[in-house]
Design a protein that fits this description.
Threonine/serine exporter family protein, mainly alpha, 3 strands, ThrE-like_N, transmembrane helix, single chain
Length: 419
């Protein structure tokens, strides 16, 4: 191989491998992926024709074609952080082809930065932190803490087995519902059972995927957006089906799956503490770099503060729109700086603060319990999804293109050697 002038097949191999890795982290959406792949090919002298949908990519370089598929999921965040300087150097022409290929494989081979036990602990913190934010009571803390251990063991234990991984949401929701319904029947817990189930299942809720699907549809990526939306709704359906199985196993009335408000027993500081604990959970569960944590925590608490103020000034929907727009703008501007974490790493955790998926799961579970309120919650989920998607699109539209270009140059033509 001539490192200065790699062959078309070699560049196609690199581009195909890159597409495979980007698709695996496809919860980020397909926007910009074609530009990324074309830019990398152009950096090494070739024009690429690329078509990307949610789970596959078609790539053609110099008459040769490849089709690659992968199942989209939330990417390992330290890999996303490592990918940012790699791509920057490639597009700037600062990385030889051989080094680019080797470094990309090094990124793909990066192990989980935290031990399995730490990631189980991360699910516990993830659950407790979110639980405090929606129901600030001591009961919520100890229930979500105990159930978070069970869900963490299931999630971490099934991740290396593709055949079992899809069962994790259903198995977790069924087990959680069995424990909560049995405890409620014996009087060990009080209040709505749904509020005790959702926080520990929050780690499976595809809220970011749902919103990205709406954004993709809004900008004309109909196939990718529709496929992503169906996948996300299937996951929500599996999570909502678990309580029905649990009720059948325990032979309790489905009406025990209900939502009700419990008087808070924690102070007004609980939301801030809860989201801080939650962010530590995100660090451990999704493999974030420790050096990225302060920036992400700042974005989480900032988004929470903006949402509190905006909701009080306007309404739930308008406040969520404002919070989403400002969150997206801040993440894009910070992520544009070379020394700071990528935008996706910055906005994944704050996105959970907006919680559109939690509204949908609450609605489906309450609806499964036979309560009409569930229809309102499901409808509310879609309204919030639209508010978040439009807020993010507004930020993307108003910011300069130099900031919003995730993958560098929009036009790779100046890099090309005509073949």
């Amino acid at each position: 191989m001539n490192d200065a002038h790699p062959s078309a097949n070699e560049v196609l191999d690199l581009t195909t491998r890159l597409a495979q890795l980007l698709l695996a982290g496809g919860f980020e959406g397909t926007l910009g992926l074609d530009r990324c792949l074309c830019g990398v090919a152009a950096a090494y002298g070739y024009r690429a024709d690329v078509s990307v949908i949610a789970e596959s990519a078609f790539i053609e370089i110099d008459g040769a074609t490849r089709v690659v598929t992968n199942t989209p999921d939330i990417p390992q965040l330290d890999q996303v952080s490592a990918f940012k300087p790699w791509l920057t150097e490639v597009l700037a022409g600062e990385l030889s082809f051989t080094r680019a290929r080797h470094r990309l494989e090094d990124i793909a081979a990066m192990p989980q930065p935290y031990k399995p036990w730490a990631r189980v602990a991360g699910v516990v913190l993830f659950s407790v932190g979110f639980g405090i934010s929606i129901q600030p009571t001591w009961q919520e803390i100890w229930v979500t803490g105990l159930l978070g251990i069970l869900v963490g063991l299931i999630k971490v234990g099934t991740e290396r087995n593709d055949r079992a991984a899809w069962l994790a949401p259903l198995a977790s929701s069924t087990l959680v519902a069995v424990v909560v319904l049995a405890a409620a029947e014996r009087g060990w817990v009080h209040g709505g059972t749904v509020e005790l189930m959702i926080p520990v299942l929050f780690v499976f809720i595809p809220g970011d995927s749902i919103t990205m699907s709406v954004i993709e549809i809004a900008v004309g990526r109909l196939t990718a957006g529709a496929a992503r939306l169906v996948q996300a709704m299937a996951t929500l359906g599996a999570l909502a089906f678990g309580p029905l199985l649990a009720a059948a196993l325990l032979r309790v009335d489905r009406g025990e799956i209900y939502d009700s408000v419990v008087a808070p027993t924690l102070g007004p500081w609980s939301g801030w503490i809860g989201w801080s604990i939650f962010t530590v959970g995100v660090l451990l569960v999704f493999g974030m770099k420790r050096s990225d944590f302060p920036w992400v925590l700042g974005m989480v608490l900032g988004t929470y503060a903006v949402q509190l103020v905006a909701v009080r000034l306007f309404s739930d929907v308008a406040g969520t729109f404002v919070a989403a727009a400002l969150m997206a703008a801040a993440c894009l501007m910070l992520g544009h700086r070379p020394s700071l974490p990528p935008a996706y790493v910055l906005y994944l955790a704050p996105f959970f603060v907006l919680t559109p998926g939690a509204h949908g799961l609450r609605g489906l579970e309450v609806l499964a319990g036979g309560t009409v309120q569930g229809v309102e919650d499901v409808g509310g989920m879609f309204i919030l999804i639209v508010a978040i998607a439009l807020g993010m699109l507004t930020a993307f539209t108003l910011l300069p293109a130099t900031i919003t270009e995730r993958y560098g140059r929009p036009d790779p033509a100046p890099l090309l050697r005509r073949r």
